[in-house]
Amino acid sequence: MLKKKFSCVKVDQQKDGITWVIFNRPEKRNAMSPTFHAEMMEIMKSLETDPDTKLVILTGAGTAYSAGQDLKEYFRETDGNNAAKAAAGANSRWRSDVLWMYNKPTIAMINGFCIGGAFTHCICSDFAIAAHDVTFSLSEVNWGILPGGMVSKMMSDTVRPRDAMFYAATGRPFNGKKAAEIGLINFSVAKKDLKRETLKLARELLEKNPNVLRGTKHAIRATQTMSWRAAADYLAAKQAEIKMRDAARGHDSYKEGIRQFIDEKAYRPVFSPYVGASDGKTTEKGGKPRASGARKKKAPARKKSAKRK
Ligand code: ACO
Fold it and tell me: In this predicted structure, what is the pLDDT of residue 263?
Protein backbone atom coordinates (compact mmCIF):
# COMPACT_ATOMS: atom_id res chain seq x y z
CA MET A 1 0.00 0.00 0.00
CA LEU A 2 1.40 3.36 -1.06
CA LYS A 3 0.72 5.67 1.91
CA LYS A 4 2.65 8.77 0.81
CA LYS A 5 0.76 11.86 -0.39
CA PHE A 6 1.85 13.68 -3.55
CA SER A 7 1.29 17.26 -4.69
CA CYS A 8 0.52 16.67 -8.39
CA VAL A 9 -0.92 13.15 -8.38
CA LYS A 10 -3.57 11.34 -6.37
CA VAL A 11 -3.22 7.60 -5.82
CA ASP A 12 -6.41 5.75 -4.98
CA GLN A 13 -5.90 2.06 -4.17
CA GLN A 14 -8.98 -0.16 -4.20
CA LYS A 15 -9.36 -3.43 -2.31
CA ASP A 16 -9.81 -5.43 -5.53
CA GLY A 17 -6.24 -4.68 -6.68
CA ILE A 18 -7.16 -1.83 -9.01
CA THR A 19 -5.11 1.31 -8.34
CA TRP A 20 -6.18 4.65 -9.79
CA VAL A 21 -3.39 7.08 -10.57
CA ILE A 22 -5.08 10.45 -11.04
CA PHE A 23 -3.13 13.38 -12.49
CA ASN A 24 -4.11 16.13 -10.12
CA ARG A 25 -3.32 19.59 -11.48
CA PRO A 26 -6.77 20.34 -12.91
CA GLU A 27 -6.20 24.11 -12.73
CA LYS A 28 -3.30 23.61 -15.18
CA ARG A 29 -5.15 20.96 -17.19
CA ASN A 30 -2.78 18.34 -15.71
CA ALA A 31 0.19 19.74 -17.61
CA MET A 32 3.34 17.82 -16.70
CA SER A 33 5.79 19.82 -14.57
CA PRO A 34 9.18 18.50 -13.35
CA THR A 35 7.59 17.80 -9.94
CA PHE A 36 4.78 15.87 -11.61
CA HIS A 37 7.30 13.70 -13.46
CA ALA A 38 9.38 13.07 -10.34
CA GLU A 39 6.24 12.00 -8.49
CA MET A 40 5.04 9.80 -11.34
CA MET A 41 8.43 8.08 -11.54
CA GLU A 42 8.25 7.29 -7.83
CA ILE A 43 4.61 6.22 -7.94
CA MET A 44 4.86 3.95 -10.96
CA LYS A 45 8.00 2.24 -9.68
CA SER A 46 6.44 1.71 -6.24
CA LEU A 47 3.17 0.35 -7.60
CA GLU A 48 4.99 -2.09 -9.86
CA THR A 49 6.17 -4.03 -6.80
CA ASP A 50 3.29 -3.16 -4.47
CA PRO A 51 1.46 -6.40 -3.59
CA ASP A 52 -1.87 -4.57 -3.21
CA THR A 53 -1.76 -3.30 -6.80
CA LYS A 54 -2.65 -5.73 -9.56
CA LEU A 55 -3.59 -3.24 -12.27
CA VAL A 56 -3.14 0.52 -12.76
CA ILE A 57 -5.59 2.95 -14.35
CA LEU A 58 -4.21 6.36 -15.33
CA THR A 59 -6.59 9.28 -15.66
CA GLY A 60 -6.87 13.02 -15.04
CA ALA A 61 -8.77 15.19 -12.57
CA GLY A 62 -11.07 17.84 -14.03
CA THR A 63 -11.51 18.54 -17.71
CA ALA A 64 -8.18 17.18 -18.94
CA TYR A 65 -6.39 13.87 -19.12
CA SER A 66 -3.21 15.89 -19.63
CA ALA A 67 -2.36 19.06 -21.58
CA GLY A 68 1.13 17.70 -22.26
CA GLN A 69 4.38 19.08 -20.95
CA ASP A 70 4.08 22.17 -18.80
CA LEU A 71 5.28 24.87 -21.19
CA LYS A 72 6.29 27.14 -18.32
CA GLU A 73 7.70 24.79 -15.70
CA TYR A 74 9.01 21.92 -17.84
CA PHE A 75 10.37 24.03 -20.71
CA ARG A 76 10.89 27.74 -20.00
CA GLU A 77 11.89 27.54 -16.35
CA THR A 78 14.54 24.88 -17.00
CA ASP A 79 16.08 26.74 -19.95
CA GLY A 80 19.68 27.60 -19.07
CA ASN A 81 19.71 25.14 -16.16
CA ASN A 82 21.14 21.97 -17.65
CA ALA A 83 20.93 19.96 -14.43
CA ALA A 84 17.24 20.78 -13.91
CA LYS A 85 16.44 20.09 -17.56
CA ALA A 86 18.27 16.76 -17.46
CA ALA A 87 16.52 15.74 -14.23
CA ALA A 88 13.10 16.64 -15.63
CA GLY A 89 13.86 14.71 -18.82
CA ALA A 90 15.08 11.67 -16.89
CA ASN A 91 11.99 11.60 -14.67
CA SER A 92 9.70 12.06 -17.67
CA ARG A 93 10.82 8.60 -18.77
CA TRP A 94 8.35 7.01 -16.32
CA ARG A 95 6.36 6.66 -19.53
CA SER A 96 8.70 5.34 -22.22
CA ASP A 97 11.00 3.39 -19.88
CA VAL A 98 8.75 2.24 -17.03
CA LEU A 99 5.19 2.18 -18.37
CA TRP A 100 6.05 0.72 -21.77
CA MET A 101 7.16 -2.64 -20.32
CA TYR A 102 5.27 -2.47 -17.02
CA ASN A 103 4.95 -5.74 -15.14
CA LYS A 104 1.26 -5.15 -14.41
CA PRO A 105 -1.57 -4.27 -16.79
CA THR A 106 -2.19 -0.57 -17.33
CA ILE A 107 -5.14 1.31 -18.80
CA ALA A 108 -5.23 4.98 -19.83
CA MET A 109 -8.73 6.33 -19.23
CA ILE A 110 -8.77 9.47 -21.40
CA ASN A 111 -11.34 11.70 -19.72
CA GLY A 112 -10.52 15.04 -21.40
CA PHE A 113 -7.81 16.97 -23.29
CA CYS A 114 -4.94 14.71 -24.32
CA ILE A 115 -2.26 16.90 -25.86
CA GLY A 116 1.31 16.58 -27.15
CA GLY A 117 3.51 14.75 -24.65
CA ALA A 118 0.42 13.11 -23.14
CA PHE A 119 0.27 10.92 -26.24
CA THR A 120 3.31 9.16 -24.76
CA HIS A 121 1.52 7.74 -21.74
CA CYS A 122 -1.62 7.17 -23.78
CA ILE A 123 0.42 4.95 -26.12
CA CYS A 124 2.68 3.43 -23.44
CA SER A 125 -0.32 2.21 -21.45
CA ASP A 126 -1.34 -1.28 -22.50
CA PHE A 127 -4.88 -0.14 -23.23
CA ALA A 128 -6.48 3.24 -23.83
CA ILE A 129 -10.18 4.09 -23.66
CA ALA A 130 -11.53 7.61 -24.24
CA ALA A 131 -14.83 9.41 -24.06
CA HIS A 132 -16.21 10.10 -27.55
CA ASP A 133 -15.99 13.87 -27.12
CA VAL A 134 -12.50 14.39 -25.65
CA THR A 135 -9.93 16.44 -27.56
CA PHE A 136 -6.64 15.00 -28.78
CA SER A 137 -4.07 17.27 -30.44
CA LEU A 138 -0.43 17.20 -31.39
CA SER A 139 -0.20 20.93 -30.77
CA GLU A 140 3.60 21.10 -31.02
CA VAL A 141 3.61 22.36 -34.59
CA ASN A 142 1.42 25.26 -33.50
CA TRP A 143 3.79 26.56 -30.84
CA GLY A 144 7.22 25.85 -32.23
CA ILE A 145 8.64 22.35 -31.83
CA LEU A 146 8.21 18.97 -33.48
CA PRO A 147 6.50 16.19 -31.48
CA GLY A 148 9.62 15.36 -29.52
CA GLY A 149 10.53 12.95 -26.75
CA MET A 150 9.30 9.82 -28.41
CA VAL A 151 5.97 11.15 -29.64
CA SER A 152 6.73 11.26 -33.39
CA LYS A 153 8.18 7.76 -33.28
CA MET A 154 5.30 6.39 -31.20
CA MET A 155 2.68 8.00 -33.41
CA SER A 156 4.19 6.62 -36.59
CA ASP A 157 4.51 3.16 -34.97
CA THR A 158 0.94 3.19 -33.65
CA VAL A 159 -1.45 4.83 -36.10
CA ARG A 160 -1.88 4.73 -39.85
CA PRO A 161 1.02 6.57 -41.55
CA ARG A 162 -1.26 9.07 -43.30
CA ASP A 163 -2.87 9.97 -39.97
CA ALA A 164 0.47 10.32 -38.15
CA MET A 165 1.58 12.82 -40.80
CA PHE A 166 -1.77 14.63 -40.94
CA TYR A 167 -2.23 15.20 -37.22
CA ALA A 168 1.45 15.94 -36.48
CA ALA A 169 1.78 18.40 -39.36
CA THR A 170 -1.51 20.24 -38.81
CA GLY A 171 -1.94 19.99 -35.03
CA ARG A 172 -5.63 19.71 -35.87
CA PRO A 173 -7.70 18.55 -32.88
CA PHE A 174 -9.60 15.26 -33.14
CA ASN A 175 -12.02 13.46 -30.87
CA GLY A 176 -12.17 10.06 -29.18
CA LYS A 177 -14.08 8.45 -32.04
CA LYS A 178 -11.37 9.48 -34.51
CA ALA A 179 -8.64 8.35 -32.09
CA ALA A 180 -10.20 4.88 -32.09
CA GLU A 181 -10.59 4.87 -35.87
CA ILE A 182 -6.89 5.56 -36.45
CA GLY A 183 -5.74 3.06 -33.80
CA LEU A 184 -4.43 5.52 -31.22
CA ILE A 185 -6.78 4.07 -28.57
CA ASN A 186 -8.74 0.83 -28.27
CA PHE A 187 -12.20 2.37 -28.33
CA SER A 188 -14.27 5.34 -27.24
CA VAL A 189 -17.53 5.42 -25.31
CA ALA A 190 -20.05 7.98 -24.14
CA LYS A 191 -18.66 10.03 -21.26
CA LYS A 192 -21.23 8.60 -18.84
CA ASP A 193 -19.98 5.07 -19.60
CA LEU A 194 -16.26 5.78 -19.48
CA LYS A 195 -15.56 4.63 -15.93
CA ARG A 196 -17.86 1.61 -16.18
CA GLU A 197 -16.29 0.39 -19.44
CA THR A 198 -12.78 0.98 -18.10
CA LEU A 199 -13.55 -1.03 -14.97
CA LYS A 200 -15.14 -3.76 -17.08
CA LEU A 201 -11.88 -4.19 -18.98
CA ALA A 202 -9.85 -3.96 -15.77
CA ARG A 203 -11.87 -6.73 -14.13
CA GLU A 204 -11.61 -8.92 -17.21
CA LEU A 205 -7.82 -8.58 -17.08
CA LEU A 206 -7.75 -9.37 -13.35
CA GLU A 207 -9.35 -12.75 -14.10
CA LYS A 208 -6.29 -13.83 -16.11
CA ASN A 209 -3.21 -15.58 -14.84
CA PRO A 210 -1.01 -12.54 -14.05
CA ASN A 211 2.18 -14.30 -15.17
CA VAL A 212 0.68 -15.26 -18.53
CA LEU A 213 -0.73 -11.76 -19.00
CA ARG A 214 2.62 -10.18 -18.11
CA GLY A 215 4.46 -12.41 -20.58
CA THR A 216 1.88 -11.69 -23.28
CA LYS A 217 2.15 -7.92 -22.80
CA HIS A 218 5.92 -8.07 -22.98
CA ALA A 219 5.79 -10.33 -26.03
CA ILE A 220 3.58 -7.95 -27.97
CA ARG A 221 5.75 -4.96 -27.07
CA ALA A 222 9.22 -6.43 -27.44
CA THR A 223 8.75 -8.37 -30.67
CA GLN A 224 7.62 -5.23 -32.56
CA THR A 225 11.19 -4.36 -33.46
CA MET A 226 12.71 -7.88 -33.62
CA SER A 227 13.59 -10.07 -36.56
CA TRP A 228 11.55 -13.29 -36.94
CA ARG A 229 14.44 -15.36 -35.60
CA ALA A 230 15.01 -13.13 -32.58
CA ALA A 231 11.26 -13.01 -31.89
CA ALA A 232 10.98 -16.81 -31.97
CA ASP A 233 13.78 -17.13 -29.43
CA TYR A 234 12.36 -14.33 -27.26
CA LEU A 235 8.90 -15.92 -27.20
CA ALA A 236 10.29 -19.35 -26.29
CA ALA A 237 12.32 -17.81 -23.47
CA LYS A 238 9.33 -15.78 -22.31
CA GLN A 239 7.17 -18.92 -22.17
CA ALA A 240 9.83 -20.58 -20.01
CA GLU A 241 9.78 -17.51 -17.77
CA ILE A 242 6.00 -17.86 -17.32
CA LYS A 243 6.52 -21.46 -16.22
CA MET A 244 9.19 -20.39 -13.77
CA ARG A 245 7.07 -17.59 -12.33
CA ASP A 246 4.08 -19.92 -12.02
CA ALA A 247 6.25 -22.55 -10.32
CA ALA A 248 7.23 -19.98 -7.73
CA ARG A 249 3.58 -19.91 -6.64
CA GLY A 250 3.19 -23.69 -6.94
CA HIS A 251 1.27 -23.57 -10.18
CA ASP A 252 1.50 -24.64 -13.83
CA SER A 253 -0.91 -22.64 -15.96
CA TYR A 254 -0.16 -24.63 -19.09
CA LYS A 255 -1.02 -28.00 -17.52
CA GLU A 256 -3.89 -26.64 -15.46
CA GLY A 257 -5.54 -24.90 -18.42
CA ILE A 258 -5.34 -27.96 -20.66
CA ARG A 259 -6.44 -30.36 -17.91
CA GLN A 260 -9.51 -28.35 -16.97
CA PHE A 261 -10.56 -28.15 -20.63
CA ILE A 262 -9.75 -31.69 -21.81
CA ASP A 263 -10.37 -33.75 -18.67
CA GLU A 264 -12.77 -31.76 -16.51
CA LYS A 265 -14.59 -29.95 -19.32
CA ALA A 266 -14.90 -27.12 -16.85
CA TYR A 267 -14.56 -24.13 -19.17
CA ARG A 268 -13.96 -23.02 -22.73
CA PRO A 269 -10.78 -20.96 -23.30
CA VAL A 270 -12.53 -18.95 -26.02
CA PHE A 271 -14.90 -17.47 -23.46
CA SER A 272 -13.05 -17.33 -20.15
CA PRO A 273 -9.81 -18.18 -18.38
CA TYR A 274 -9.56 -21.49 -16.56
CA VAL A 275 -10.80 -21.70 -12.96
CA GLY A 276 -8.23 -20.30 -10.56
CA ALA A 277 -6.11 -18.56 -13.23
CA SER A 278 -5.93 -15.34 -11.23
CA ASP A 279 -5.09 -16.84 -7.86
CA GLY A 280 -3.05 -19.82 -9.01
CA LYS A 281 -5.14 -22.47 -7.24
CA THR A 282 -5.77 -25.82 -8.85
CA THR A 283 -9.12 -27.62 -9.07
CA GLU A 284 -7.38 -30.99 -9.30
CA LYS A 285 -8.37 -33.48 -6.61
CA GLY A 286 -5.52 -33.83 -4.18
CA GLY A 287 -4.18 -30.48 -5.31
CA LYS A 288 -3.77 -27.58 -2.98
CA PRO A 289 -7.06 -26.48 -1.39
CA ARG A 290 -8.45 -23.35 -2.94
CA ALA A 291 -8.27 -20.23 -0.81
CA SER A 292 -11.70 -19.50 0.62
CA GLY A 293 -13.49 -16.79 -1.32
CA ALA A 294 -10.56 -16.42 -3.74
CA ARG A 295 -12.83 -16.99 -6.71
CA LYS A 296 -16.50 -17.07 -5.98
CA LYS A 297 -17.71 -17.24 -9.55
CA LYS A 298 -18.10 -20.79 -10.79
CA ALA A 299 -17.08 -21.46 -14.36
CA PRO A 300 -20.06 -22.32 -16.58
CA ALA A 301 -20.38 -26.09 -16.89
CA ARG A 302 -19.98 -27.52 -20.35
CA LYS A 303 -23.01 -29.25 -21.80
CA LYS A 304 -22.75 -32.93 -22.64
CA SER A 305 -23.49 -32.20 -26.29
CA ALA A 306 -20.38 -30.05 -26.38
CA LYS A 307 -18.19 -33.05 -25.57
CA ARG A 308 -15.91 -33.81 -28.39
CA LYS A 309 -15.80 -37.31 -29.85
N1 ACO B 1 1.60 24.09 -19.90
C2 ACO B 1 1.46 25.03 -18.95
N3 ACO B 1 0.28 25.50 -18.57
C4 ACO B 1 -0.81 25.03 -19.17
C5 ACO B 1 -0.75 24.05 -20.18
C6 ACO B 1 0.54 23.57 -20.53
N7 ACO B 1 0.72 22.60 -21.43
N8 ACO B 1 -1.99 23.78 -20.59
C9 ACO B 1 -2.81 24.54 -19.87
N10 ACO B 1 -2.10 25.32 -19.01
C11 ACO B 1 -2.60 26.28 -18.05
C12 ACO B 1 -2.92 27.63 -18.68
O13 ACO B 1 -1.76 28.41 -18.80
C14 ACO B 1 -3.91 28.17 -17.69
O15 ACO B 1 -3.20 28.65 -16.56
P16 ACO B 1 -3.65 30.04 -15.82
O17 ACO B 1 -5.01 29.73 -15.27
O18 ACO B 1 -2.63 30.24 -14.77
O19 ACO B 1 -3.68 31.08 -16.88
C20 ACO B 1 -4.68 26.94 -17.24
O21 ACO B 1 -3.83 25.83 -17.53
C22 ACO B 1 -5.98 26.73 -17.96
O23 ACO B 1 -5.73 26.85 -19.35
P24 ACO B 1 -6.82 27.40 -20.37
O25 ACO B 1 -6.17 27.57 -21.69
O26 ACO B 1 -7.48 28.58 -19.79
O27 ACO B 1 -7.87 26.18 -20.35
P28 ACO B 1 -8.91 25.72 -21.46
O29 ACO B 1 -9.72 24.66 -20.82
O30 ACO B 1 -9.62 26.89 -22.05
O31 ACO B 1 -8.03 25.09 -22.65
C32 ACO B 1 -6.26 23.66 -23.51
C33 ACO B 1 -7.34 23.87 -22.42
C34 ACO B 1 -6.94 23.56 -24.87
C35 ACO B 1 -5.56 22.37 -23.16
C36 ACO B 1 -5.30 24.88 -23.52
O37 ACO B 1 -4.92 25.18 -22.19
C38 ACO B 1 -4.03 24.64 -24.32
O39 ACO B 1 -4.02 24.79 -25.52
N40 ACO B 1 -2.95 24.27 -23.59
C41 ACO B 1 -1.65 24.04 -24.23
C42 ACO B 1 -1.53 22.57 -24.66
C43 ACO B 1 -0.18 22.31 -25.28
O44 ACO B 1 0.11 22.84 -26.34
N45 ACO B 1 0.64 21.51 -24.58
C46 ACO B 1 1.99 21.22 -24.98
C47 ACO B 1 2.00 20.03 -25.89
S48 ACO B 1 3.58 19.74 -26.57
C49 ACO B 1 4.38 18.80 -25.45
O50 ACO B 1 3.82 18.27 -24.56
C51 ACO B 1 5.84 18.55 -25.67
Answer: 95
